[in-house]
Amino acid sequence: MPGLVSCLRVLIVIGLLLLLSPVNSQSEIWTNEVSDVQYGRLGSNMCLSGLVSDVQYGRLGSNVTLECSVAPGRSSVEWRLNRSSALPWQHHVTSDGHLVLLHADHAAEGNYSCYDNQGLLIQTVRLQLGHPPGLLSVSCRVPNHNLVFCSWVESVKTHLPAQYHASYRDRNQVMPCDVSPPPQQRCTITGPTMWQPYHDINITETNPLGTQTTVVRLRFDQLLKPDPPEAVTAEGVVGFTRRLQVNWRPPASWPNDSGPFPLHVQLQYRPVGSKVWSTVETMDSHLLITDALEATAHHLQVRVQDGHNPDSQWSDWSPVQQASPWTRSTVQPTEVTPADYETDATTTPKPENLYEEGGNLGVVVLLALFAGIILALVSSLFVLMWMRHRGWGNRTKQELTSMVKMKSMPI
Q1: Which CATH number fits domain 230-323: 2.30.110.10, 1.10.60.10, 2.60.40.10, 3.10.560.10?
Q2: Which of 63, 45, 62 is nearest to 54 (CA)?
Q3: In whole angstroms, what is the distance from residue 45 CA to residue 208 CA?
Q4: pTM for the structure as a whole
Q5: What average pLDDT does range 70-94 have in this prediction?
Q6: What phi and psi, each to the nearest 5 degrees, are found at residue 196?
């Protein structure tokens, strides 16, 4: 009860002061109090239920001391955690009223209040535990020649609010890296000096328990990696059964005027179910495939690279697209009119059909010519053998006749 009376007296005094103060002063007071709680600076004691004026940070696993400003003549104090008179953690209270928490961990966090022997509130403090900063794991992404995005991950989970300062340095100068607002842990470099032999990224993390600086050395020209191409489409070409027309757009993060920085494009495609990719390259934003399999679906992907920097990285592949070449459709029979006859008579076959028919006719002619040559050779050989056999028979008959005549002659 005496504590409540004391609080009411303080509130009355504060109310009178606020009434006598300008409006701007009131705004400044509340702004400072919020800032103190957010960044861990000590503020003034307050006697408002549930509102903590002071924030104290401590290291996890260490002994943490909470001070209580005991007025002269007060012999003892009582500490409470979250309004409970029982303190669940190992502790002891010093002769001057300070509370010492032994090997504190997260279970010891909370709102601590100290009271005098008459039950009057002396001080309230909020305890938050964590670790000092450690080295950061830093990585950078370079989607084009004008931007560099660097991000980092804590190697030590500090459990405490932190502030970051980032910059980069090349051989000649130090330039800022603009840090994004929390909770993002990244910074952006605009207009980097791309063609320097090295770049040092410097990121400093600061929290209430300490400061740690991480420095990594990189080469932006080797990290240059465009985003994948966009709006990739593929479709068959009417009248051609083995062609696919593929189109795409440069990534949105690449400069619209790509003249100074052209993109080297690589397209890979394969029939669905095959494990072997065919690859073609170009500097354009479209490409015509002329050797697709007829009536077969194909998978296609596209990726890009800086056309002037062979040391840069290829982008990731675009999502897989599926397309099939044009196929002849079956035409349903319809009623034919004289006009239809005239139209059919004057219709010119498509170039590919002419090519295919001409190709088939050429094959037939070659086969017929080859067969004729073989037949002629066989016939000639047969005639020669027959003539030789006939000549041998005649000579044999003549020899036999001569022998008979010689035998019939008188000796």
Answers
A1: 2.60.40.10
A2: 45
A3: 20
A4: 0.62
A5: 76
A6: -85, 155
